[in-house]
Amino acid sequence: MSDFVNENNSNALAKIVARLRSESMTRIIALGSSNTERAHHSAGCLNWVDWIDLGIHGAYGRVHHTINSGVCGQTTADVKQRFERDALSYNPNVVFLTLGGNDCNPERNISLADFENNLKELVSRLAALAGCTVILQTYYEIDRDALAREGQQARADSFYDYMNVTRKVAAATGTCLIDNLSRWSRLRAADSQTYLSLMRDAMHVNPLGNMVWGLDVVDWLGGKVATAEFDDCMKSRFARAQEVRTLMDSLA
Questions:
Q1: DSSP alpha helices (H): ranges in 61-206?
Q2: What does the pLDDT read at residue 44?
Q3: Alpha-carbon distance 85 to 91, whole Å?
């Protein structure tokens, strides 16, 4: 997974793994909007945060708490308002920040400059916590054609600018970046049907897409998902997710 490999990521990974192996408990927070929140759009299935939780448990044991602080529809400005309650109050050791999909909506009035400043502030406040590792994430590829059909062409067009800001902030602050968008964009370009099989709608992944996303991060963390207790349906979906991930690897 070349999109996960750079100096900042290697340093962050070493820090996280060392903690998981040596400390009694690690507090992991996933902070974002609907792509993070586990709600109705998860279709009653595990989302990417849940897969990370399972993967860490499978490799390291129950040495962590995973807290899902995603709230549907929120921008970076919204997250700033609840930041003390839903992030800092937990004194987290690892935080995944996955934002921008709502900021890029012109109706929300969050400019690129606002988004950049908000994201930098969130990263800075987390990095100031002793022993906290911050992981910025870009979104997966959105279905921009579907967005256009829904009358949201401007949002589709600006989405990529906001994801580029996420990359920019990661580089400027020396923060770990998981660039899901690069990985998923190649898949969409090479095999649109497989890409669409991962999507619930224009802006959200379905259970299979969540699995692909989560397992990518699990592998990066050196995690392991125990599949022995899966039923046949879950085993089939898991196998399909691994096929898609292998295809993504080949495209990289």
A1: 76-81, 83-86, 112-127, 144-149, 153-173, 180-190, 192-196
A2: 81
A3: 10
